[in-house]
Amino acid sequence: MIGFTPLPFLLFISLLAIPPSPASSSSRNAIECSRVQPNSTCFIEGVAFESTADEYLTIFPPATHIIMQASEILHFAPHLFDALAGTVFLTLKGSIIPALTFRSDELRSLRIDATELRELAVAPLVNRHLNTLIITGNPLSVIPPTVRYLTGLSMLDLSNNRLQHVQLGWFEPMAGLLVLDLSGNRITRLDVHASLRLVRLENFWTNHNQLRRIEFFPRFAPALRRVRLLENYWACEWVAQVRELIWANQIQVHGAEHACPEADDGGLCCYEGQQPFTELDGGLEREANGDDERGQFGKTSARVESYLQARDQTHRDRQPGRDCNVLEQKYRTLVDEKELLERRFINTVRELERTVRRLTAELTEAQDRLRTQHVRLA
């Protein structure tokens, strides 16, 4: 007699016979570390996706710290952040990643360094987990207002990009913000409303921009301890106003300028009238993007030499005098730019010398204390 086979048993057998789906773990795009440092930092190189489907199938290695470089990802989208299994520190550098949309509840630190980033978006969801955000060395010109949702930030570094306008009010929800670095951009205006308070901000860098003034400074940062203001186009009347406030609030001003084309007020160059900035200055900054002062100086000298050669060739070919006059004018302009870069370089060298002297004095003092302790122990 043939027994009756229960229906649940037949269903179980049928499920076992179903082949795995194409999206099973065997078909996932598992990215491996190119090398791993002793501190378990995972380096990933040469990542590129052929399609969006490949991105959705990506699995990053389960490393606490990932450094991705020499890669090409047109848009680092939220699903790629979701694929970071257990990663707390992520660094993207030396790659081509022109767009990024941040959304992650796992990351504590995100660094985006020289990735050709132009478009940045932040998911409009309150994020209390990200502690450090560094975006530097990119052609980024705009910060999205949704950056205000990153309420857990204690360090925000937006240096050496191409920002032109920043609203400081966007950072007010970041109650624990200690460091704000806006240096090395093209900022002409910082919007500050009268009631703004960055209550815990201690370090504020705005050097190497095109600012004329910062309203309500330093009132909007009651805990401010250190600032960098050099290499801007400060109005002399603004410098005179804030100098006493800086002194009264015992704020340390790092860096000083000594070779000023117009006026020097307490170590800061200041200018009367309109901002002395031209498109030619901007062109120089764009060409020297990412270079140090020596690199800028070298490029300017090379351009001067090329103009001289062109002028000599013009004379030899007996071209009209108008062309010679144009080249002469360009040459004089470049010579003026060369002098400005030389002054900037001198200021930088002097600042470094002061830093070295201070560190040497501190080291000597520490060595003396150690000797005293050894003598007492002996």
TrEMBL record:
Name used for this protein in its record: Leucine rich immune protein (Short)
Record keywords, A-Z: Coiled coil, Leucine-rich repeat, Repeat, Signal
InterPro entries found in the cross-reference section: Dev_Immune_Receptor (IPR050328), Leu-rich_rpt (IPR001611), Leu-rich_rpt_typical-subtyp (IPR003591), LRR_dom_sf (IPR032675)
Signal peptide limits: 1-23
Keyword Repeat listed: yes
Top-level lineage group: Eukaryota
SMART domains in alphabetical order: LRR_TYP
Organism listed in the record: Anopheles quadriannulatus
Cellular component GO terms held in the UniProt record: extracellular matrix; extracellular space
Coiled-coil intervals: 324-369
